[in-house]
Design a protein that fits this description.
It is built from 15 helices and five strands. With about 475 residues, it is mostly helical. The strands form two sheets. The protein has a three-stranded antiparallel sheet with strand order 2-1-3, with no helix packed on it. It has a two-stranded antiparallel sheet with strand order 4-5.
Length: about 475
């Protein structure tokens, strides 16, 4: 005997009635009440239906829209990929333009008619300051975005954050062509303020982007996450090409930042365009009428605590993954030299660090994220995801044993270039796979109206993990 759920609305509030198919309150009843029935689903079928049916599907009897819109030419999907690249692009370009920063902060004071070739304090400490200026405001703004996401409309958050990034990244581009030799202190302060503002706005954009992607099918969340890794690959290739063609530090930085300006502005204008597309509005706001206007704009209260109770294992896994990663990369890995450094050719002395530390890492990270999007396993056993994240911590001491210099405390045990490259590949691919599978599964285990909050919470955990890992990384560098 099949059971059914009757929703009676006569003479008072809606009452849910669970009855047998031969009861008096079914779809075939003769009573005056207005009843609707729906068949109960088994737990497995219910989970499957929640994954396959888009959030807020329009009723099948709607006279205006009988099925969900289509992503024509995969336009929204491709733009989500672009937004993923854009969300990490400022950081990737700031890091890969290291030669430019070394040039800007070189010692320009003559010493007995010569210029000192030693590193200045700005040159030696710039990367550490850059990490702090990027990670702390990012974490604060990710947490802030979690609390204000229901107060400030989505379009305002996205458009305003992209506008701020565009403005200050353009300022960074202009300063490339400005002679700052006589005001390095002031230039350093301006740069740090710019990094803080860009990364703060980028965190709001990235957190909101995760919230948006969480409302779509899992492939759209994968597109955002994969795009973040692809941005690192693009930046690494640009750096290697500049080395191959022996482009000056200022010219290569100007090219980096001009590309960044174009990508950010294109992301801004393209978002304004897709925010009016029916497919986009269908998933963000709910069902649409025949004019393309949302018919479901009611705000639903979502408890962050209740959502966190559902996703805490995936959140913990994601946090551990990024604490582990940022404690080693790039602080320790950028110090690892080729075993034949100083005696070999260009590969050992010029290309080893850019290729292995940036290109191979970002390519492996991207491959891991793409693989996770295709396999999507484990789908339900969250403890396996957490166990892999915890086991991955064991890779940290292995990197500490590699040929990183300068060092004065720990011995070098892994001095083979091949072994180090293999270790980097495993490190990168597990980072990408775990990050992607955690983000996707976190959006799967919550209700449709909780997906945005779940994705924003995961973004906040990601930021916290990066900040903690960066702090640990400074200690690990000093303990070498």
């Amino acid at each position: 005997m099949e059971s059914a759920v009757g929703l009676c609305v006569e003479g008072g509030p809606r009452v849910m009635v669970v009855a047998a198919r031969d009861c008096d309150c079914t779809s075939d009843c003769d009573c005056d009440c207005d009843c609707e029935t729906e068949t109960e689903l088994a737990p497995e079928a219910e989970l499957e239906s929640r994954e396959l049916v888009p959030p807020h599907p329009p009723p099948s009897h709607s006279p205006h829209l009988s099925k969900s819109p289509h992503d024509n030419y995969y336009m929204v999907y491709c733009l989500f990929y672009l937004y993923g690249i854009t969300s990490m692009m400022p950081w990737n370009f700031f890091v890969t333009a290291n030669d430019y920063w070394m040039y800007k902060f070189r010692d320009v004071t003559p010493h007995n008619g010569t210029i000192s070739i030693g590193k200045t304090s700005f040159q030696a400490e710039f990367t550490s300051y850059l990490n702090i200026a990027a990670s702390i405001p990012s974490t604060i703004c990710l947490i802030f975005n979690m609390f204000i996401s229901h107060l400030i409309p989505l379009n305002i958050r996205i458009i305003s954050s992209l506008s701020i990034i565009t403005l200050f990244f353009a300022l960074t581009t202009v300063l490339v062509q400005v002679d700052t030799d006589n005001w390095q202190d002031e230039f350093f302060i301006v740069t740090m303020i710019t990094v803080v503002i860009i990364n703060g706005a980028g965190a709001v954009f990235g957190g909101s982007l995760f919230g948006i992607a969480g409302k779509f099918e899992s492939s759209y969340m994968a597109a955002v996450i994969n795009g973040q890794a692809l941005g690192g690959v693009i930046a690494a290739i640009a750096q290697i090409l500049s080395l191959a063609f022996k482009v000056s530090a200022t010219h290569s930085a100007f090219i980096y930042f001009m590309i960044g300006d174009f990508m950010i502005m294109f992301s801004l204008f393209s978002y304004i365009r897709i925010s009016r597309v029916e497919y986009f509005k269908y998933y963000i706001y709910g069902s649409l009428n025949d004019t393309g206007i949302s018919t479901n704009n009611r705000m639903t209260y979502v408890s962050s605590l209740n959502v966190l109770k559902k996703i805490w294992v995936y959140a913990l896994s994601l946090g551990i993954v990024f604490v582990t990663t940022t404690s080693i990369y790039p602080g320790v890995t950028v110090l690892v030299e080729s075993h034949h450094s100083g005696a070999g050719g260009d590969w050992n002395n010029v290309y080893f660090v850019p290729v292995v530390n940036y290109l191979i890492y970002n390519t492996g990270d991207y491959a891991g994220r793409v693989l996770a999007g295709f396999i999507l396993k484990p789908r339900t056993k969250s403890w396996i995801v957490a166990a892999i994240a915890i086991a991955r911590i064991a890779i940290v001491p292995l990197f500490m044993m590699c040929n990183a210099h300068p060092r004065s405390h720990l011995p070098v045990i892994i001095n083979s270039d091949t072994q180090y490259i293999l270790l980097m590949l495993i490190f990168a691919m597990t980072n990408g796979y775990e990050a992607n599978i955690s983000m996707i599964n976190a959006a799967r285990v919550v209700e449709n109206h909780e997906k945005e909050r779940a994705s924003i919470l995961m973004g906040a955990v990601l930021g916290i993990g990066i900040s903690i890992g960066a702090a640990i990384g400074m200690c690990l560098v000093r303990s070498l």
